[in-house]
Amino acid sequence: MFDIPIQFIASFIFAIAIVHTFSVKFFKSLAHKYSKHEKILHMLGEVEIVFGFWAIILVLFFFISSGKNDVVNYLNNQSYVEPLFVFVIMVIAASKPILDFSLTCVKQISKLLPINHSLRLFFVSMTFVPLLGSFITEPAAMTLAALILKEHFYSKNISNKFKYGIIGTLFVNVSIGGAMTPFAAPPILMVAAKWNWDLMFMLTTFGWRTALAVFTNSLILTIIFRKELIKIKNLNIKENNTPFFILFIHLILLVGVIVFVHDLIIFLGIFIIFLGIASSYDRFQNKLILKEAFLVSLFLAGLVILGGLQKWWLQPLLNKLSPDQIYYAAVALTAITDNAALTYLGSLVDGLSDQFKYALAAGAITGGGLTVIANAPNPAGYSILSKNFYGNTISPLYLFLAAFGPTIIAIICYKII
Question: I want to staple 368 with a disulfide (CB 3.0 to 4.6 A). Which of 127, 271, 287, 375 is the partner?
Answer without folding.
Answer: 375
